[in-house]
Design a protein that fits this description.
Layout: H1 2-6, E1 8-17, E2 23-35, E3 38-47, H2 49-71, E4 77-79, E5 85-88, H3 90-96, H4 100-103, H5 108-111, E6 113-116, H6 126-133, E7 143-146, E8 152-154, H7 155-163
Length: about 160
């Protein structure tokens, strides 16, 4: 009835039993078109079992990664290659004063505000430095993180707190 009304139907994930009794997942697309003044129904059925299995594996791995990411005791912020925040854990939220939903898409330098404790000069753009050198960037002991609300946390104090 739906095909008759809409002239097109699609099922992305339809379970199907094959003639030999195997269970597979299929994508089913059917449409009605005119040929020689007659309605013709075309049906395409594609086995998506492997694609669905791969998608399920990826989803499980992403869940494991998310749980691991959010249980890390250090502040972690991940960016895209342009330096825009994509994800941050709760420790990074506390240090920066930014919630994930506020920080998402913002440039790292506006979220992760770090300066030299002595000179008060802003730190170099970390993303740019990593992309240029391909190396891990270490922060100096005299680095201070300034949160969204203006609270300053010295890097030495942070490192000692996490080493306990």
């Amino acid at each position: 009835m739906e095909l008759k009304e809409k002239k097109y139907i699609r099922f992305e994930d339809l379970p199907l039993e094959t003639s030999d009794g195997r269970k597979i997942d299929v994508e089913f697309v059917s449409n009605v078109y005119k040929q020689n003044h007659h309605d013709v129904i075309q049906c395409n059925i594609r086995d998506i079992t492997d694609r669905k299995r791969a998608s399920d594996v990826i989803a499980a791995e992403q869940e494991l990664l998310a749980v691991t990411f959010h249980s890390i005791v250090d502040g972690v912020i991940a960016t895209d290659v342009q330096g825009n925040v994509e994800i941050m854990n709760c420790v990074a939220e506390k240090l920066t004063g930014w919630k994930q939903d506020e920080a998402n898409g913002q440039p790292l330098f506006s979220i992760f505000n770090i300066i030299n404790e002595t000179t008060r000069a802003p730190h170099d753009d970390l993303v740019e430095k990593v992309l240029k050198t391909g190396e891990i960037v270490e922060l100096a002991d005299h680095t201070v993180i300034i949160s969204k609300t203006g609270i300053e946390t010295g890097y030495r104090r942070l490192r000692r707190a996490y080493q306990r």
